[in-house]
């Protein structure tokens, strides 16, 4: 079957594995975005953005992170902001998803190889129903983004001209649903001007949460009325997400209740709303209604933990993912109880899942620790500030304590690589660099080693 996806060299591309195709595809999109952002028309001043800053911005947008070295709202022109918005949409849904959209519109068939790449991109265990899932991803995304854009436009029409309100509504709807965190309010303020606004807060939180749940879970929720049941994956994702948001709200509310640099001037309702928002946004969104640099160190470190956990598989977010975190907690509980099996909702999980969760967690920790150690040497800043920025980059969150705009050349390159690794996934990158080996034909004798 003919493939709908363009190829520079068909025979060369066919030799690439799905992980390699994904890595090169995202790299190509970032390069195109970099070149477009370097054009004089992309800036309001008419001057060209230097290559490193353009590369950083394109990487942050494509990897739906939100860390910025130049202020999006004041530096970029309408053309530049539109390029960023398109990069966010393509990066959030995945370039293979967007390519499938064009293929479906043109009524072209999806080849077996393209289905394999889609399976890898959506983190699925099989190709069964993958094209149907992509259709639903596109439909749900457009419906959610469109509805939220309309509501935000109506709200912001009270604060700005109608045309600007519509544009702001569209941009922020795409940015927040894809968990990118880019904003147009300027001066690195994000949504701090709307800390007491329940309408903006609730709409943005809805976008962040739905974008971070994953399209499989959204589809499962939509089908619940017909099936009257949820899959194990959806149950784990929904319960973990709810627990993390509630726990985060409580911790942030308690730690920041009397902090004059954050919530000290807010009334009780505003404090609850601000704590709720700051609990949701570390799930890889990047927007904030409080000054992150003004939070207490305990709160900042707690947000680092929330960012490290991140969103859920198959979503627009990053981090080690909620299912990985829950599986690790389940393994600890099972060990403490003296049980061999990990059971969630009366389902036993295979050991292979535990090994995968452990691998992802350790690789993520290794990457964050390594990058943080290097940046602590090159940047000469407080270690918590460096750890915060590094974790934000890996988890594609975009929250910042103010370090990113002041990064050195080495720092910008390192954060770019960290964002890229966080968006693609460490296992995908590992498989791209060294493809998976088949199962061994023999086993070594079992050995015993003292642990703990």
TrEMBL record:
It comes from the Bacteria. It is a multi-pass membrane protein. It holds the Pfam family TrkH. Keywords: Cell membrane, Ion transport, Membrane, Potassium, Potassium transport, Transmembrane, Transmembrane helix, Transport. One of its GO terms (cellular component) is plasma membrane. GO terms for molecular function: potassium:chloride symporter activity. The keyword Ion transport applies. Coiled coil: none annotated. It is found in: Cell membrane. The chain crosses the membrane at residues 20-39, 51-70, 82-106, 137-158, 199-224, 236-255, 301-333, 354-375, 409-433. This is Trk family potassium uptake protein. The keyword Ion transport applies.
């Amino acid at each position: 079957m003919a493939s709908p996806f363009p190829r520079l060299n068909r025979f060369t591309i066919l030799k690439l594995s799905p992980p390699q195709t994904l890595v090169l595809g995202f790299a190509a999109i970032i390069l195109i975005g970099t070149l477009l952002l370097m054009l004089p028309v992309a800036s309001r001043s008419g001057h060209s953005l230097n290559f490193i800053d353009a590369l950083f911005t394109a990487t942050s947008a494509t990897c739906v992170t939100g860390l910025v070295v130049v202020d999006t709202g004041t530096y970029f022109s309408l053309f530049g902001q539109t390029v960023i918005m398109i990069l966010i949409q393509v990066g959030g849904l995945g370039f293979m998803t967007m390519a499938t959209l064009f293929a479906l519109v043109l009524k072209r068939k999806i080849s077996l190889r393209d289905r394999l790449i889609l399976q890898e991109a959506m983190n699925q265990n099989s190709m069964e129903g993958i094209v149907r899932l992509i259709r639903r991803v596109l439909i749900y995304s457009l419906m959610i983004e469109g509805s939220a854009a309309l509501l935000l436009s109506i709200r912001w029409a009270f604060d700005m001209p109608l045309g600007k309100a519509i544009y702001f509504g569209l941009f922020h709807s795409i940015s927040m649903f894809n968990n990118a965190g880019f904003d147009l309010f300027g001066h690195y303020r994000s949504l701090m001007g709307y800390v007491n606004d329940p309408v903006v807060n609730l709409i943005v939180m809805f976008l962040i949460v739905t974008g971070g749940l994953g399209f499989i879970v959204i589809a499962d929720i939509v089908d619940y009325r017909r099936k009257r049941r949820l899959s194990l994956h959806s149950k784990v994702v929904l319960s973990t997400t709810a627990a993390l948001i509630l726990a985060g709200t409580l911790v942030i509310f308690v730690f920041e209740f009397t902090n004059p640099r954050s919530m000290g001037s807010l009334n009780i309702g505003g404090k609850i709303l601000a704590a709720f928002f700051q609990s949701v946004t570390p799930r890889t969104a990047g927007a904030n209604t409080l000054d992150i640099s003004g939070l207490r160190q305990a709160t900042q470190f707690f947000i680092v933990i929330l960012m490290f956990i991140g969103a859920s598989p198959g979503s627009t977010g990053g981090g080690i993912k909620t299912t990985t975190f829950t599986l690790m907690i389940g393994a600890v509980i099972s060990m403490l109880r003296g049980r061999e099996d990990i059971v969630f909702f009366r389902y036993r999980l295979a050991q292979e899942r535990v090994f995968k969760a452990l691998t992802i967690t350790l690789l993520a920790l290794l990457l964050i620790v390594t990058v943080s150690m290097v940046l602590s040497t090159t940047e000469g800043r407080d270690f918590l500030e460096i750890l915060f920025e590094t974790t934000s980059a890996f988890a594609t969150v975009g929250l910042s304590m103010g370090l990113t705009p002041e990064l050195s050349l080495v720092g910008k390159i390192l954060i770019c690589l960290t964002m890229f690794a966080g968006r693609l996934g460490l296992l995908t990158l590992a498989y791209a660099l060294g493809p998976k080996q088949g199962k061994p034909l023999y086993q070594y004798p079992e050995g015993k080693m003292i642990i703990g």
